[in-house]
């Protein structure tokens, strides 16, 4: 898909937090992703990217560093009216570029949409490859014992485009 000329992705600013909350909340209510409280989004705002289509916020996502060589893409959400225009792919590409710049070797996500991530060069993985995530966060999640999210990962070391 050729990139949409009106599409841009940039680091989120504190003033974007409410729009990010609204995007995530819309899909969390539909059971498509986990919710993120507004206060948590404010605290993690430096991790977030926002995508704009013709100037208006169309999507968001965050890259959270979990270790010296591991980061997680989370809270990836594209507004209903903006889907299918490369917004999600552009946010993932921006997160991967950030990870590379930080010298991170592996990026992963837990998702209900593994097919989307496979299109972005990720492969299905075993969640237990990421004990930093499972034992720090997943254990506190209300869905821990009945988790339907699928782990996907992308190796950023040489050889992976
Ligand atoms: C999943 C989501 C992020 C995709 O964003 P998007 O902007 O619509 O996707 P894009 O237009 O960037 O699509 C990029 C590619 O992925 C494919 N794709 C998009 N959604 C897909 C899905 N659910 N399953 C498989 N492939 C998908 C597209 O067909 C496109 O393929 P191409 O490279 O061959 O053209 C978006 O639909 C969304 O926010 N959904 C609700 C919340 C959610 O599920 N978030 C992800 C949970 S971690």
Describe this structure in words.
- The chain has helices at residues 17-29, 38-43, 87-101, 114-119, 131-136; strands spanning 7-11, 48-53, 56-67, 70-78, 106-111, 123-124, 150-155.
- The protein has 161 residues and is α+β, with helices and mostly antiparallel strands.
- It has a single domain (7-155), classed as 3-Layer(aba) Sandwich (Aminopeptidase).
- It has a seven-stranded mixed β-sheet.
- A hairpin with a 2-residue loop joins strand 3 and strand 4 (70-78).
- The longest helix is centred in the middle third of the chain and has 15 residues, at 87-101.
- The two termini are 18 Å apart.
- 34% of the residues are buried.
- Bound molecules: coenzyme A.
What's the helix and strand layout?
Elements: E1 7-11, H1 17-29, H2 38-43, E2 48-53, E3 56-67, E4 70-78, H3 87-101, E5 106-111, H4 114-119, E6 123-124, H5 131-136, E7 150-155
Parallel strand pairs: 4-5
Antiparallel strand pairs: 1-2, 2-3, 3-4, 5-7, 6-7
The structure holds coenzyme A.
Residues 1, 27, 32-33, 76-78, 83-89, 109, 111-113, 115-116, 119 line the site of coenzyme A.
